[in-house]
Every structure is written in C-alpha cells, then in structure tokens.
Amino acid sequence: MSTVLVVQHEDDCPPALIGTWLVEAGCRLDVRRPYAGEELPGLAAYDGLLVLGGPMGADDDATHAWLGPTKELVRTAVGTGLPTLGICLGHQLIASALGGLVTRNPLGQQLGLLDVGWTDAAREDELLGPLATPRRGVQWNDDVVARLPDGATLLAATARGEVQAVRYAPRAWGVQLHPEVDAAVLRPWAASDQGSHEAAGIDQEAVLAEIDAARPELDAAWRPLAVSFAEQVDRFAAEHHR
Q1: Catalytic site residue 178?
Q2: 3.50.50.60, 3.10.690.10, 3.40.50.880, 1.10.760.10: CATH of 3-239
Q3: Would you call 180 a catalytic residue per the annotation?
Q4: Catalytic: which of 27, 64, 88, 91?
C-alpha cells in the first residue's frame, strides 16, 4: 500500500474529504501535526506528500516553527520527484519554498464557490488534465501566490487573474481552492472570520448553505483529484519497487 505523508497545520484544517478519498483510492495516510509537537519525518519511507491548509501565512516561519522544515520537505520532494500536492496554505508553502512570492490578496478575501479558470496548459497536465473542464471549487483565503517560482506552470486562475492551480515541478502541484472541505469543516473558519464578515456585510449562513447544497456537485468535481493523485503516488511506489 502506498503511503502519503500529510502535514496538518491546525486542528480545524484536517484532511477531511480528500483524506477519505485517498484512503478509498488505496493510499495509507501518515498525518503529522507539528503544531502539536509531532515530528516531521524524512521522506524516504513515503510515496507522496500532501500539505494542507491553515490560517497562518506561508512565510510566518518565526511564529510557526514547523513552516521552515515543511518548506525543506517540499524542496526535497521536488528534488526526488516525490508526488506532492499542496492545498491553500500548502500550495502557498510550495510557492514560497521554491522562490515564489506569497502576499495578501489586494482584491480581498476569496470566499465561497468560485469557478475554476483552467488554462490551456491544464488540459495536458498529468494530475489536473482530467479535471480541466468547467467546475466550481470552495475558496476561503486571504493570501495568494503573487509570483510563481521559476519553471512553474499556471494551470488555473480566476477571471481577475488570481492564481488557482499550479504545476510547480513535474510531480508537484498546488491548488488554492479547498477540495477537502464541507460545511462542517468550514464552520470553525466562519466563526474565526465572523467579525470581519459582519463588517463586510457577508451572510455566512448563506455562504455555508450554498456550499452544503452543492455537495454532490463538489464531490463529483474533486474526488477525481484524489484519485489522480493516488495514481501518481502508486506510480512512484512502483518505480521504487515498494
């Protein structure tokens, strides 16, 4: 059974649906919670790396001591061709680790169900090519990748030009959206943002209800991402005779 190392950054940001889908696709998950004192291991025993989201900034290394070591894991994974997927903060950490720039989105927080604006390059991508058709995803983020690292390929962007998906290396990808969440996962996030959302006139219950109502659509849209990543992981394991 192929094994994926999962880096989790906060209790409220678990693997959730993508974890379930990866297990259903035949992967074993080793979830590490360095914020709770768990060690980040080396990558020699793993066939894939999944870096999850979180509320901190990608360059908040001084206040979140594990972010620097996580970026080092990313650089090692890219160097060895280990299949790597970053979600939201994880996507931003890959960008930062490889020399890109992550900033606060000058257009404001991205929130709710957004269309994915696939580029022509996405259609030929090994991981995301099968998904490069019209679909929506959940976004809940203040920061964005403002400059891609050298050699990275933009795979999706919003109509306003905000980065949504990137191939950072032949086997390393990041998605700004959250394929893993449902309304239950999002409720603590909403509670954390309640003050700013009230000030902005955002109806959180309406946002969550729309996402909940779209559950069948979102499952059909993003379960294939887990299946596609599991295929990458299995291929790596086969190449290394695990």
Answers
A1: yes
A2: 3.40.50.880
A3: yes
A4: 88
